[in-house]
Each structure stands twice: as structure tokens, then as C-alpha cells.
Amino acid sequence: MTIEKKLIDIWRSLLAIEHISIYDNFFDIGGDQLLFMALTNRIQTIFGLDSAIFIDNKFKSISEQANFIKRLQRHSHQSMLVNLRPGCNNHPMIFIHPVGGTLFGYMPLINKLITENNIWGIQENFLFGDFNTYDSLEEQASFYIFKLKKILNCKSIILAGHSMGGSIAFEMCRQLISDKYNVKHLIIFDSWAKMPFDVTFRNRFKEFILRQFDKIKPDHFLDMQENLDTWLITMWKRMELLLRYKPVKIPVNATLFLPGEIITEYQTDTPYDNGWSEFVNQLQCYKVLGNHETMLTEQNVEPVSNHFNTYLSSYFL
Questions:
Q1: Which of 103-107, 123-127, 149-153 has the lowest mean pLDDT?
Q2: CATH of 3-74, one of 1.10.645.10, 1.10.3430.10, 1.10.1200.10, 3.60.21.10
Q3: What is the DSSP string of the chain?
Q4: Angle ∠(30,62,44) on CA atoms, nearest 5
Q5: How far apart are CA 230 and CA 129, in angstroms?
Q6: pLDDT per residue over 97-109, tens digit each?
Q7: According to the 3-state scheme, what is the secondary structure of 15-51?
Q8: For the segment 47-89, what is each residue's pLDDT rounded down to a tens digit?
Q9: Mean pLDDT rounded to a whole number for the chain
Q10: Cα end-to-end span (Å), the chain
Q11: Are 118 and 93 in contact (CB under 8 A)?
Q12: Domain boundaries, the chain
């Protein structure tokens, strides 16, 4: 039985109607919020998925629900999730990839962190030839949470992200908090609450991405090397998700690291805090060495690691 047919049967049993199209809106044909909760619980039971994903994204048609279930089932969490440094799992740290999709850029920092906790990273599936797209940054964050829960055995974590990864980490933080997780802290490396760019940024974005491609040893990702044009298109689609994203305030404390140097591509009129203060409880800001692209490199990362380790020692030692 196809996913669509299984979903039709679930809808029929809940709504007590026979004729249902896969494009019908659940709330237009007799559904309400209580029935929607019952629907997501049935989905969780039958497909083995986290109902919170559907509640948060509010997939209202069978077509939308089936497509998302297929996306979840297509991926294996082993390729996306990387244990960057093994440790105990009391308060794991999760680093979210920047727009380039890889985790290489975090390693100089991770090597200097003083912690006994697990450090995980989430990287892009398109690095391995899977050019699946998302409809929103909220959906992308939900998918990452779905994968993350496969390896978490605690409900207390730290999230961190550079550039686009900071925004994804923020949205993951919002969804995890709504799911009763304790996000101890959010670490943001030069990300913007509201992107100060528009579609005219595309040419500059391509130049930036090609620079990243030269740095990340593409021989590690042969599919990416062979599909560079598709890779660039997919990354721009990811950037469009970010351009459309609208954060809402969440109850979390955060630290923002800002580069001391501003490169041409990132000359903006955004405030000193990149707009994050209004969306978190408390925000600490630190200016560090380097620019957007070099602030986490070996030669510049020392001030970042010092602040990071001060935070870790105050909370966990």
C-alpha cells in the first residue's frame, strides 16, 4: 500500500468521509485542531515518525504529508550526522553546517574546546549527491531534528552554527524548546536574524560559494565535484529559504561572535548584534579576529575558543 493510500485511510477514519483527494486541505473538509493532533499521532504510530514535525510544519494535505514522509524515509542519518569528537552524552553540542554544507570549518575551534561531552555536526546531504530541496527553513530544521533524535539520549543540548547554520540552529532551537528539550545555549557565528540581502545577492553568493569549494577538498565528495552546477543551484535554493525566513522570539540565551573585519560581500547596515537581541532572552556579543570567512580558521580562532571554554566551564565544571 502506498504512503498516500495509508494516509487516505487515516483521514477517512478520523473525518468519517469517503471521498478524499490527496490535495484536500484537512481543515476545509471537517478537520479541526484536535483532529489534527489525532492525525499526527496516527502518523507517528504507523510510519514511526515524530509527530512534532508535522504539528510544527502544519502539512495540511495528503500530498504534502506524503512528500515529507518520503523525504524522511529517503535519507539515512549516518551520512548527515558526524560525531566530530566523541564524549559523554550529558549535554552534547551540535554544530550546524554553514551554507557550503560541510563541517570542516569548525574543526580548528572544536580541537580547542575543553569538554567531555559529545560534539556532533550536521552536514548537507547534497555533499553525497542527494539534491533534495525543502519548502522552508522551518522544514529543513524539522528534518535535521528528526535525524538528530536518532542519536540523542538526553534532552539537554547546546546548538551552534556559522552563517546560515546559525539561522538553522536558531529555528531548531525554537522547535526543540516547543518539544520540551532544554537548549542550554545557542552559539551564533556571524549570522543574521533577518538577512540584509535580496535576490541581487546571487552573483556575489556564487563567487563566495566557489571560494568555499576550492577550500573543502572536493575529492572527498566526488558526487559534488561531478555535479557542481546542480550543487550551486541547490545551495542558492537553500539561500532563498534563508532570505524568506522570519524568526520569532524564543526563551533561550545566546552568544554571538562577530568578525572584526567586514568583507565586501557582507557590507550592510544591520545593527551591532545582527538583529538577534530581540529574538532571544539574553545575548552576549563578542568581536573576534578575522572576517566572515576566516574567523574560525586556525590563526584566528583562539579568542572564540577562549570565550567558548569560559562558557563551558561556568556551566558544566
A1: 123-127
A2: 1.10.1200.10
A3: --HHHHHHHHHHHHH--S---TT--GGGTT--HHHHHHHHHHHHHHH---HHHHHHHT--SHHHHHHHHHHHHH--HHHHEEEEE--EEEEEEEEEP-TT--SGGGHHHHTT---SEEEEEE--GGGGT-----S-HHHHHHHHHHHHTTT--SSEEEEEEETHHHHHHHHHHHHHHHTT-EEEEEEEES--SS-S--GGGHHHHHHHHHHHHHHS-GGG-HHHHHTHHHHHHHHHHHHHHHHH------S-EEEEEEESS--GGG-----TTTT-GGGSSEEEEEEESS-TTTTTSTTT-HHHHHHHHHHHHHHH-
A4: 95
A5: 9
A6: 998 788 888 989 9
A7: HCCCCCCCCCCHHHCCCCHHHHHHHHHHHHHHHCCCH
A8: 766 555 555 556 789 988 888 777 666 554 446 888 888 888 7
A9: 82
A10: 53
A11: yes
A12: 3-74, 77-316
Single-letter amino acid code for the residue at 261: E
Per the listing, cell 560541510 goes with: 102
- Residue 49 grid coordinates: 515518525
Residue 187 predicted with pLDDT over 90: yes
- Per-residue cell: 299: 590563526
d(Cα 308, Cα 125) in Å, to the nearest integer? Answer: 28
Beta bridge partners of 96: 122, 161
d(CA 298, CA 108): 5
Q: How far apart (Å, rounded) are the C-alpha atoms in residues 191 and 293?
A: 12
- Lookup result for grid cell 532544554: 182
Is domain 77-316 in CATH 3.40.50.2300, yes or no? no
Are 203 and 64 in contact, with CB atoms under 8 Å apart? no
Burial (Cβ within 10 Å: 0-12, 13-18, ≥19) of residue 302: middle
